[in-house]
Design goal:
single chain; about 55 residues; mainly alpha; 4 helices; about 80% helix
Length: about 55
């Protein structure tokens, strides 16, 4: 539950917490744009859900 909240607030942090440093950096760059915030959140949710399954 906490990871889902982190994915919405800071998708790059969710990537870093999962050990995906390069993806986290790319997610930061995507998150910096207003249009890229939604895809960054979806991407973080997908990575988080895939890791827990």
């Amino acid at each position: 539950m906490i990871m889902i909240i982190i994915c919405f607030l800071a998708p790059w942090l969710a990537m870093f917490l999962r050990g995906k440093v390069l993806q986290g950096i790319l997610c930061i760059l995507l998150h910096l744009t207003i249009i890229g915030w939604i895809p960054a959140t979806i991407w973080a949710l997908v990575v988080t859900r895939r890791e827990t399954a």
